[in-house]
Amino acid sequence: MAVTDEAILTIKQMILSGELRPGDRLPPEKELSERLRLSRNSMREAVKALEAMKILDVRRGDGTYVTSLEPELLNEAMSFILEAQQDHEAILEIFAVRRILEPAASALAATRLEESDLEALRRSVDSITADSDVEEVVSHDLAFHAAIAAGSGNRYLASLLDSLSGRTVRARLWRGLTEEHATERTLREHGAIVDALAARDAALAEALTVSHIAGIEGWLRRWSEPESSD
């Protein structure tokens, strides 16, 4: 398990054990990272993810506090970390299949999408900003890829990609929570793909989709590897 994930689970255990109670302020970052023998960068990423899950409340200039989340809800919110780790190899295989099939769908869509479809894709990209919450970004991501697959004109390919995409939702959520600038990167790459589709450049749309899927696949591989401490 990656060090950032270990930090998250350690803080979770401190809350569940009662060591940290609702409303309690966390020790300073330096003190907590030294106590848990983690790099400050790993600790910072863990706090950021727990803040996004509404488990911690970061008050600028004041400190970081535990919210009033009940232990049962905390367990539910955190369970997907271990589940995703257990399914790591299967998810990697799914991304590998997506990397093969989705570029072909993009190439087909470049010649078949209607102007109204392209406009809808642009509106979808424009509806998300760097400040959008991770659930909104993942919802956009799923719809974006589904629209391109449908635009390929091949119902079987679109159906297959839809079934594969649904298996990767947890990984997408976790990337959005833990990878710095993940939203900006996703929007930049989606925008470039739409530009290629609008130009009716099948080869470019295919290449950009390969790069996009491979980037997510690469993150997933790095996520599962232990981090070195600073």
From TrEMBL:
What would be an example GO MF term here?
DNA-binding transcription factor activity
PROSITE patterns assigned: HTH_GNTR
InterPro entries from the UniProt entry = GntR_C, TF_FadR/GntR_C, Tscrpt_reg_HTH_GntR, WH-like_DNA-bd_sf, WH_DNA-bd_sf
Q: What does the record list as coiled-coil region(s)?
A: none
> Which UniProt key words apply to this protein?
DNA-binding, Transcription, Transcription regulation
PANTHER family assigned: TRANSCRIPTIONAL REGULATOR, GNTR FAMILY (PTHR43537), UXU OPERON TRANSCRIPTIONAL REGULATOR (PTHR43537:SF5)
Write down what this protein is called.
GntR family transcriptional regulator
State the organism named in the record. Cnuibacter physcomitrellae
